[in-house]
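Final report, closing paragraph on structural work. Over the funding period we assembled a curated collection of sequence-structure pairs, and we close with a single example.
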Amino acid sequence: MLAFLQRNLVPEIPLEDWTSSFVKYVQGIDAVDDFFDFVKDIIGGFVGALEATLTFLPEMWMVALFTVIAFLLTYRRATTFSTAGAVLGTLLFLSFPLWGNAVLPALEQALGSAIPSGVAAVLAFVLVFGLIAALFFGSLVAVFTAFCFPLIASLGLWDETMLSLALVLAATVVSLIIGVPIGVLAAKSRAVEAAARPTLDIMQTMPAFVYLVPMVVFLGLGAGPALVATVVFAAPPAVRLTMLGIQQVPQNTVEAAHAFGATPWQTLRKVELPQALPTIMAGVNQVIMLALSMVVIAALVGSGGLGEAVVRGLSQLDVGRAFIGGVGIVIIAIYLDRVTRPLGSLIQRKPGAKSALSKVLPGRKKGADVDLDTAGSTGSGAEDNAKVGAGSGSA
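Its predicted structure, as stored:
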């Protein structure tokens, strides 16, 4: 009796065989094969172009560029001293090929006479780049960048770091191109929102290896499957936060724009998107972080970069190699997070920026700006006054 109850009475569905048969069938179609070859070439060219751009200049020049970007986006208060320090630090980075080859070996040799050579090299690095980083005291993120990016170069991971950064930037661009328009449509259409939510849930909860395998089958090894898997994993925050940002725009602001004759496209482009920009930029930050978290998994399919150092250390049980790869990933993650986090508020607080409604209404006189948050209440108050006047007149 118990044996009968333990029998598997649920029919077995051969989903595995159906999936394998479908993939083999699709692989046999020449048009599909040509399409995936075209996609692979496009992705490889895009990532390769970004990598070539990031590795074109000397290492210290790129460090200067990254540090200046961090300083401009995250400085607390621009004073004469902080600006002068940043300029001096930038000039020292740009001229590093002229004086670095003489100063660093001499300092290391002087310290090596009293302490071990390894410790002397560390102290020489800390003294030189610590002093340069201190010149960017107006921004802690710039100080971090000026010290830690040369550390990446000293670990011999500069090319791998630029490749990983190129892959992250490419995945971020593709994710935003796909995610932001879908988020706008989902905010405007309940049907699109209802279809997007479960799709995004599946994309975020399904293990990356599940959709990495078919991408390897169709695109082969390299940057192609890595980029597609990264986009699938990183795009949902762009959709969700774009949709959330537009849905949270005050309704009276939208109604005021419509009342002054703005078209739906003008309302979206000049009222809703600027109002939702901080939330959208938070989505950009999340997309970048999720794309960077896929670096190690992407290295398993031959994308290279910092993830390759971690994978190689894991396969060879080389703790040191895996550790320095992880250090590089952490430095890039902190930099991208701190630099992209304030972008939305900086764009909104840009000096001289016009109000959203004044952009919609060309030809209005200066000083005639309408407060968007009170436009709806002002209009209703005018209507009430008109009614009161009409009532007193009839009385």
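Residues 158-348 form a domain with the MetI-like fold fold (CATH 1.10.3720.10). Residues 193 and 248 are 15 Å apart (CA to CA). We thank the funder for supporting this effort.
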